[in-house]
C-alpha cells in the first residue's frame, strides 16, 4: 500500500473528514516518527510495533568491479520490530486481547 492509497482508504472510511485534512494527518504522523528516529528516540505503537534506529559501525567494503578496499562510514538505519498482535494477524491467527483474560462465548 502506498501513502496515497492509505489516504484514499482513510478518506473512504471517514467521509466526515476532508481529504486535505487526512493528508495532513498522515504526513504529520510520518514526519513525527521520522523526527523521533533522527533524534535517536524509539517510537512504539501498541499492538502494531516499534520503530528504532540501529547503529552500523564503520567498516571496509569492497568495490565489486575492481575489488579495491573502500571505507564505508558508520550510519544509523531505521528498524521496525512488529508487535505480537500484528504478527498474529499476519500469520492468520486472531490476536488475543492484551491486559484482560479472554471471555468464553455463550451460545443461546
In terms of topology, how is this protein built?
Elements: H1 3-13, H2 19-39, E1 43-45, E2 49-56, E3 59-62, E4 69-72, E5 75-82, H3 84-90
Antiparallel strand pairs: 1-2, 2-5, 3-4
Q: Care to describe what's here?
A:
This protein has 108 residues and is an alpha+beta fold. The chain has helices at residues 3-13, 19-39, 84-90; strands spanning 43-45, 49-56, 59-62, 69-72, 75-82. The chain has one domain: HU Protein, Chain A (Irregular). Helix content is 36%, strand content 25%. The protein has a 3-stranded antiparallel beta sheet. A two-stranded antiparallel sheet has the order 3-4. Helix 1 (3-13) packs across helix 2 (19-39). The protein is elongated and about 60 Å long. The two termini are 41 Å apart.
Observed structural traits:
108 residues; transcription; two-stranded antiparallel ribbon; Integration host factor subunit beta; 25% strand; 3 helices; IHF_beta; HU Protein, Chain A; DNA recombination
Amino acid at each position: 500500500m502506498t501513502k496515497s492509497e492509505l489516504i484514499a482508504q482513510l478518506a473512504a472510511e471517514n467521509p466526515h473528514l476532508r481529504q486535505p485534512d487526512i493528508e495532513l494527518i498522515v504526513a504529520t504522523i510520518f514526519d513525527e516518527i521520522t523526527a523521533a528516529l533522527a533524534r535517536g528516540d524509539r517510537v512504539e505503537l501498541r499492538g502494531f510495533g516499534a520503530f528504532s534506529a540501529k547503529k552500523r559501525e564503520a567498516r571496509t567494503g569492497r568495490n565489486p568491479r575492481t575489488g579495491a578496499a573502500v571505507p564505508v562510514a558508520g550510519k544509523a538505519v531505521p528498524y521496525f520490530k512488529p508487535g505480537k498482535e500484528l504478527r498474529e494477524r499476519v500469520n492468520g491467527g486472531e490476536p488475543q486481547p492484551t491486559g484482560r483474560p479472554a471471555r468464553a462465548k455463550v451460545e443461546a
